[in-house]
Automatic annotation (TrEMBL):
Transmembrane segments: none annotated. This is Thioredoxin 1. Gene3D superfamilies: Glutaredoxin. Residues 44-118 form the Thioredoxin domain. InterPro entries: Thioredoxin-like_sf, Thioredoxin_domain. It holds the Pfam family Thioredoxin.
Length: 120
């Protein structure tokens, strides 16, 4: 991981810890605008089993799954970590909004299902 990526990750973590609310992250050229072949419309949820915020997110993800397709990706596995790196995901929990196979928005931190459903 290069210095720029580490600084971005540190900034996201500091902001999320200090604000404790939803953080929208638009990473030009890294994540938003990328095409994904394995999901046409829905959400990609990146999580870690060790992540306290991911445990809080679990109930919101379960609610989201009732209304939309959610692809859950555990960054604690080799495959999950590889996908996260390829898409530029730097922290968990991260949720990517996918429309027509294109990532259109990303969220880092705990986000309520109601808020995410407004994106589809």
């Amino acid at each position: 991981m290069d210095l720029k990526s580490l600084l971005l990750l540190a900034a996201v973590l500091v902001i999320s810890l200090s604000v404790g609310k939803l953080i929208k992250v638009y990473i030009s050229g890294r994540m938003v605008g990328k095409k994904v072949d394995f999901l046409k419309d829905g959400f990609m949820y990146f999580y870690s089993e060790r992540c306290p915020a991911c445990k809080v997110m679990k109930e919101h993800i379960e609610e989201l799954k009732k209304h939309s397709k959610v692809l859950e990706i555990n960054v604690g596995t080799n495959e999950g970590l590889s996908i996260a790196k390829e898409l530029g995901v730097l922290a968990t929990p991260t949720i990517l909004v996918v429309k027509d196979g294109i990532i259109v928005k990303s969220f880092v931190g705990v986000v309520k299902a109601e808020r995410l459903l407004k994106e589809v």
